[in-house]
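User: Hi! I have a protein structure encoded as tokens and I'd like to know what sequence might fold into it. I'm fairly new to this, so please keep things simple.
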């Protein structure tokens, strides 16, 4: 019988002024740094991605992260220097981004995007 593990949650989130990465420390002890261009380029909102299937890297947009706000107990919304703030990044999605930045790497992630199953 499978047991359900508690979901992994961020314990610390940081992107100091001038930073180029969003740093997340997770409840299981993992620390990830996700470059701003990946976080912004793979914004999951409908205005960036449309209403289709997967999430594709969108080049461009201001990469200055000026605000991080919690959305309930499951996600973050990020405000960028150009005012864009409509993406809701679930903790699960952010964790997946961090994993994919590590392997296969940022350039491969930009080329492939993320499928809906992920």
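Assistant: Happy to help. Inverse folding works backwards from shape to sequence: for each of the 118 positions I chose a residue that suits the local structure. Here it is:
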């Amino acid at each position: 019988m499978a047991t359900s593990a508690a979901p992994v949650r961020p314990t610390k989130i940081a992107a100091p002024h001038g930073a180029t990465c969003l740093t997340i420390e997770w409840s299981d002890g993992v620390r990830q740094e996700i470059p701003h261009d990946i976080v912004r380029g793979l914004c999951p909102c409908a205005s960036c991605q449309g209403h289709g299937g997967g999430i594709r890297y969108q080049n461009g947009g201001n990469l200055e992260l000026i605000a991080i706000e919690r959305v309930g107990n499951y996600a973050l919304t990020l405000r960028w220097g150009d005012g864009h703030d409509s993406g809701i990044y679930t903790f699960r999605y952010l964790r997946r981004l961090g994993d994919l930045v590590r392997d296969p790497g940022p350039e491969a992630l930009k080329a492939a995007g993320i499928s809906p199953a992920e």
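A useful reference point when you look it over: The longest helix spans residues 91-102. Feel free to ask if any position seems puzzling.
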